[in-house]
UniProtKB/TrEMBL annotation:
It comes from Paeniglutamicibacter cryotolerans. Its EC number is 1.1.1.22. The active site is at residue 266. The keyword Oxidoreductase applies. NAD(+) binds at residues 32, 37, 88, 124, 158, 269, 336. This is UDP-glucose 6-dehydrogenase. It holds the Pfam family UDPG_MGDP_dh_C. Pathway: Nucleotide-sugar biosynthesis; UDP-alpha-D-glucuronate biosynthesis; UDP-alpha-D-glucuronate from UDP-alpha-D-glucose: step 1/1.
Length: 443
């Protein structure tokens, strides 16, 4: 008989995982403490934007294979395997991860599970967490119930979440005191049969793989952005530099796009949590470079603000600035630690009138920062603007031509924060163009 699966936490990770587990043929219950979110999901409605996921959700809610609940008692007596995918955000009082949601989820599961079951951690956690949770589960388990724990970090990217879950680059199984490899292989049989590499290892390695991957990706982005700072002074073309580097197969071209930098609910908080964790372990010297990675990244946002100030000079107060893109990356409505939203709010605080348009991110941004002027279209945002900022590379922005904006803008000035436009072409049309890794003014 097919395994019954529960997924605890139905945010970006958990909702995707639950729908994909249903697509793989399992019966699934998604659980969250957010009643409103669960009500929406139970109607087959996704509370966030993620390509391909609405269709999967609708299909499996309609078939009854995927259900949603807020009741730990319901999943505790029903599922064979419980995935934990709750949030591990940056603590408000420091750099480390807030583990209260993971701890609460594990404790609630242990108290409500009525028969032997496997609990699988998917959240991104500081090394040592799984070992600690094993003890927590044993402490709160019902008498006679054996709970095994495995760690199975998730590597999906927002915008590609379904594809990354259905066909992952690799699977990592961190195995604890009770051997759970066979059950994990059953859960992931489809991917394994398709040849997905699997790394079976201990808890510590599995936890570290995840944060090491994100630290590496963040470092790669800041590496190219550090060179962007150099070309901004000496000249040179940062895109060509990245292309030339990328031809070296040992380096590779991906994650070498200079721009306004990385944001989102993962890379920034994960490099900070890693520094915090190694510091607790007395090893802060090992990850000191990540402080630089973070600083280089944040300086990119300063650069865009300074460019806007330079381009508008004494006109900034009261000038209309159009900000195109507010989500942290295209194909997502996620504005957590979004470089675009950060820049937009800083320019607003400096006295500009900021008009924002994002194909999907406006509502989330408006909840966090309601005072910006959120527009229904790109054309409404740029109408009367003295400066246009392109900060998230949605396809519709990449396709822009100078003639699309010229009838509307007050001044032909643009900052390409993602280096996706043909700068020479825009300049030939009379635009003043600033971009990342490029001297401004361009001699
Ligand atoms: N978003 C991604 O692309 C991604 C990818 C890989 C890993 N991760 C990791 O996955 C974890 C979740 O990230 P996310 O982006 O999905 O976060 P999220 O904030 O979108 O979702 C977390 C969900 O957990 C719920 N929750 C909190 N406490 C709970 C509890 N005690 N019981 C049940 N539900 C509870 C929240 O209500 C929320 O819906 C994090 O550790 C993150 O680092 C995220
Ligand atoms: O060359 C690049 C590539 C990305 N970015 C920015 O980096 C951020 C993160 O992008 P990406 O990694 O694609 O998005 P996430 O959905 O945050 O995914 C990361 O974080 C997830 C959560 O841990 C992991 O599962 C993924 O493997 C990891 O890529 C975004 O702001 C991008 O704009 C750049 O500035 N330059």
């Amino acid at each position: 008989m097919s395994l019954k699966v529960s997924v605890i936490g139905t945010g970006y990770l958990g909702a995707t995982h639950a729908a994909c587990m249903a697509e793989l043929g399992f019966e699934v219950i998604g659980l969250d403490i957010d009643q409103a979110k669960i009500e929406r999901l139970a109607e087959g409605l996704l509370p966030f934007h993620e390509p391909e996921l609405p269709e999967l959700l609708r299909k499996h809610v309609a078939s009854g294979r995927l259900r949603f609940t807020t009741s730990y008692a319901e999943v505790g007596e029903w599922a064979d395997v419980h995935f934990i995918g709750v949030g591990t955000p940056q603590r408000t009082d420091g750099q480390g991860a807030d583990m209260s949601y993971v701890d609460a989820a594990a404790t609630s599961l242990a108290r409500h599970i009525t028969r032997d079951a496997l609990i699988v951690g998917k959240s991104t956690v500081p090394v040592g967490t799984a070992r600690r949770l094993e003890a927590l589960l044993a402490e709160h388990a019902r008498p006679g119930v054996e709970l095994s724990l495995a760690w199975n970090p998730e590597f999906l990217r927002e915008g590609f979440a379904v594809r990354d879950t259905m066909t992952p680059d690799r699977l990592v199984f961190g195995i604890g005191t009770i051997d759970s490899e066979a059950m994990l292989r059953e859960v992931y049989a489809t991917a394994l049969e398709a040849g997905t590499p699997v790394v079976v290892t201990d808890f510590e390695t599995s936890e570290l793989v995840k944060v090491a991957a994100n630290a590496f990706l963040a470092t790669k982005i800041s590496f190219i952005n550090a060179f962007a700072e150099v070309t901004e002074t000496v000249g040179g073309d940062i895109g060509t530099l990245a292309d030339a580097l990328g031809y070296d197969a040992r380096i590779g071209r991906r994650f070498l796009n200079a721009g306004v930098g990385f944001g989102g609910g993962c890379l920034p908080k994960d490099i900070r949590a890693l520094q915090s964790r190694v510091s607790e372990l007395g090893l802060s010297h090992t990850m000191g470079f990540l402080a630089e990675v973070d600083e280089i990244n944040l300086r990119r946002r300063d650069r865009v603000v300074h460019l806007a100030e330079a381009m508008l000079a004494d006109e900034l107060a009261g000038a209309k600035i159009a900000v195109l893109g507010v989500s942290f990356k295209p194909d997502s409505d996620d504005v957590r630690d979004s470089p675009a939203l950060d820049v937009a709010t800083r320019l607003f605080n400096a006295g500009a009138e900021v008009a924002v348009y994002d194909p999907k991110g406006n509502a989330n941004a408006a909840r966090r920062f309601p005072r910006l002027d959120y527009c229904d279209s790109l054309y409404e945002a740029v109408d009367g603007a003295s400066l246009v900022l392109l900060l998230t590379e949605w396809e519709e922005f990449k396709a822009l031509q100078p003639g699309d904006l010229e009838p509307l803008v007050r001044k032909k000035r643009i900052i390409d924060g993602r280096n996706v436009l043909d700068h020479a072409g825009w300049e030939a049309s009379g635009w003043s163009v600033a971009a990342m890794g490029r001297r401004y003014p361009n001699p």
